[in-house]
Amino acid sequence: MLSSKLLKSVACPLSSSIIRSMHSALIVASDGSEDMELVISVDILRRANIQVTIAGLQDADRVTCARGTTIVVDEKLADVANKTYDLVVLPGGQPGSNNFASSSLVGDVLRAHEKAGALIGAICAAPIALQSHKIALDATLTSYPSVRGQLEDAGYKYSEDRVVVSGKLVTSRGPGTAFDFALKLVELLEGQEKSNDIAKAALVKQ
């Protein structure tokens, strides 16, 4: 059996300059996050060669999504909360979205990335975490229909478009718009051509 050290020595590593040039994304996962929104976001971003870290909100090595899918996380959010990424993504679902909204740690991460000028993406019910932590309060956004009133009451301008980009904030509506959401994030980080190539390879109708 080859040792991990030997495997690393015979692998073809990326040059340090290429690694530094890769964009990074933090996808926050919670028990009760929406399965499709979490998995599709991870998959599409990784197809774009974006360095994705799945960070679990709970103090565990995995999360159980709203429909029962178990996801092993890369890190615990508490262990990477002080790092800065090019993109932070909050999948929706319940009780995952409520968990994000009530977490002071999620609030700290969102505020730090907003201040740093990073992209922030939230889909389905997850925009309630933006409201709870007072992120981009003057933005136009969209969400799952059931939380529209809550967001409008907080002062957000609301759109029923499938994906809404408002400054550095990207929001979307639900499981059926998860591909649109993830491909828009790729477009904003890597360009339209890369997004189109991934959509074509994945047979996503545009």
From TrEMBL:
Single GO cellular component term: mitochondrion
Keywords linked to the UniProt accession: Cytoplasm
Protein name: D-lactate dehydratase
InterPro entries the record matches: Class_I_gatase-like, DJ-1, DJ-1/PfpI, Prot/Nucl_acid_deglycase
Any one GO biological process: glyoxal metabolic process
Enzyme class: lyase
Pfam families: DJ-1_PfpI (PF01965)
